[in-house]
Amino acid sequence: MQTNQDFNFTATETNIYDFLISHKAEVIKSNLRDLAKTIHVSPASVLRCIKKMGCDSFYELKFNFRNQQSTQINSQSQKNYLIDIARDFFTRPLLSEYQVTLANIKKMIRQSKTLCFFGVGTSGILAEYGARQFANFGIDAFYNKDPYYPYQRISKDMNSMVLIVLSVSGETGEAIRQIISLKNLKCKIVSITNTSYSTIAKLSDINLSYNVSAEVVSDTINITTQIPVLFLLEYLARELKK
């Protein structure tokens, strides 16, 4: 395990690090501005410390802390989990957090001729929902849940298509293979994943990550809440309609 010396901290950053590590529960429940006030430093100082710890954002740090504290939960605490996760997501400064990324996605879609939503399993169901929601707002879109769909045999010019990939883990093998294949055909890739450091996120031209605590049961079934995905899909559709 890394110590604070391993991160080459300044004296101020060392104090911030010590507080973050020893008050994980408080960090998870707090926002960046209030946390900075508690430590008596600026939000920028907290962010610099967090980045030295290897996290891209305050929300990624909270995500990591939450995962470290995750345990088996009963049905009652699961209800609390869903409320807590939703509250945490929607109390973030979402519009400023995603402003540049959403603007880039809107520009890419408006310059495209074809928009396709893609996912496997639960993400495939959400891909279907996303395509329908975009269609509700008059945006031409279709969905595909077949990871073996032969795009290569279609005569369309793929560099005019944007593929929006939905994946919680960002590590679904079938989705990764499909993305690599389409990137070779010059297709533009937008992904919505739980983390920004997954394989699918890194393969994408643009990635939206929502950073919530992951839940996996029976070692393979991912039941991580998809409330953030629904919000991002609906918000993007409404923004494009403008």
SS-based class = alpha/beta
- Principal-axis shape: elongated
Quick one: how many beta strands?
Answer: 7
Mean pLDDT: 84
Tell me what you see in this structure:
This protein has helices at 11-22, 24-29, 32-39, 43-52, 58-69, 75-90, 94-110, 122-136, 173-184, 199-203, 227-241; strands at residues 114-118, 142-144, 161-167, 188-193, 206-209, 216-217, 221-222. The N and C termini lie far apart (49 Å). With 242 residues, the chain is of the alpha/beta class. The model is unreliable at 1-5 and 71-76 (pLDDT under 50).
Keywords:
two-stranded antiparallel ribbon; single chain; 11 helices; 7 strands; alpha/beta
Structure summary:
The chain has 242 residues and is an alpha/beta fold.
